[in-house]
């Protein structure tokens, strides 16, 4: 049974020719969750041969443009492609007004149901619950209200030979140990690492993290593997960020656009 994440975008606010801004695609036993939707996300979905219509859930961490500016294009493409099934959108409540304004300005009435789920809690909150998967949202420490997401596979009859798998997505956050109890022991933690630690003061000012800080969180939370991303466009070579993180947490991987990471292996 598949449990994997495909990196659609690994950069921070400014895209480069090699790296798009933030977007991940989680395949949880053939249920597809789009996590963040920066500009260019639908092109990445086409590039990596993902069928748009299979995505039923979109989770937006916060309302900085490099995490949702691709959303209205994605929603209207689904409309133009004739989608009939409902799409569930989980985000800050202000996003609903933004989408309604964009649709009204273009005189577009979606032909499929868009079901909006506002993220308003300042605590861990169950936002999706099925027989095989639970998804939680929880607050991060950033300059605007921001949520991380925790995906927990559930026990069922085919899982006698292995443990349920788990994935945590923590983008755009300053270093905070408040998240450690929430992500404790996950199979794969994605944690932003916008800067090298030599820029720790700037990271704090901008409420972001360094590669060293991401690795420290991973170590203290005793996760199995760490995936770092949300890289500043100033870094053409990502190896120093990887080396810095691995100095604290050896089981660290770089988020690379187009790469698929199998969770729990």
Structure in words:
The protein is an alpha/beta fold. 23% of the residues lie in helices and 28% in strands. Strands 6-5-4-3-2-1-14 form a 7-stranded mixed beta sheet. Strands 7-8-9-10-11-12-13 form a 7-stranded mixed beta sheet, covered by helices on one side. A hairpin with a 2-residue loop joins strand 2 and strand 3. The longest helix is centred in the middle third of the chain and has 12 residues. It is globular.
Per-chain topology:
Blueprint: E1 3-9, E2 23-28, E3 31-35, H1 41-47, E4 55-59, H2 65-68, H3 71-80, E5 87-91, H4 94-105, E6 114-118, E7 125-129, E8 133-139, E9 147-153, E10 166-170, H5 180-183, E11 188-192, H6 200-205, H7 211-221, E12 225-229, H8 239-246, E13 252-254, E14 260-262
Parallel strand pairs: 3-4, 4-5, 5-6, 10-11, 11-12, 12-13
Antiparallel strand pairs: 1-2, 1-14, 2-3, 7-8, 8-9, 9-10
Give a concise summary.
The protein contains 8 helices and 14 strands. With 265 residues, it is an alpha/beta fold.
Find the count of extended strands (DSSP E, 2+ residues): 14
Count of helical segments? 8
| Beta-strand residue fraction | 25-35%
Order of helices and strands: EEEHEHHEHEEEEEHEHHEHEE
- The mean pLDDT is 96
Main traits of this protein?
single chain, 265 residues, 7-stranded mixed β-sheet, 8 helices
């Amino acid at each position: 049974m598949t449990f994997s994440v495909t990196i659609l975008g690994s950069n921070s606010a400014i895209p480069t020719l090699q790296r798009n801004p933030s977007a991940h695609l989680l395949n949880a036993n053939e249920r597809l969750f789009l996590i963040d939707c920066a500009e260019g996300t639908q092109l990445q979905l086409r590039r990596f041969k993902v069928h748009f219509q299979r995505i039923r859930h979109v989770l937006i961490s916060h309302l900085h443009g490099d995490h949702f500016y691709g959303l209205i294009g994605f929603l209207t493409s689904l409309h133009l492609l004739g989608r009939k099934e409902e799409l569930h959108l989980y985000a800050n409540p202000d996003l609903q007004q933004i989408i309604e304004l964009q649709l009204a300005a273009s005189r577009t009435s979606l032909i499929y149901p868009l079901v909006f789920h506002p993220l308003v809690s300042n605590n861990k909150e169950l936002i999706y619950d099925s027989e095989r998967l639970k998804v939680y949202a929880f607050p991060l420490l950033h300059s605007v209200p921001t949520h991380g997401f925790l995906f927990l596979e559930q026990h069922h009859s085919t899982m006698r030979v292995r443990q349920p798998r788990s994935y945590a997505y923590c983008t755009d956050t300053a270093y905070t140990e408040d998240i450690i109890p929430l992500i404790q022991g996950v199979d794969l933690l994605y944690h932003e690492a916008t800067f090298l630690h030599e820029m720790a003061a700037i990271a704090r000012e901008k409420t972001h993290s360094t590669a060293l800080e991401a690795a420290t969180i991973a170590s203290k939370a005793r996760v199995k593997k760490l995936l770092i991303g949300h890289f500043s466009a100033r870094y053409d070579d990502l190896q120093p960020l990887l080396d810095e993180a691995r100095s604290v947490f050896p089981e660290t991987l770089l988020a690379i656009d187009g790469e698929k990471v199998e969770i729990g292996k």
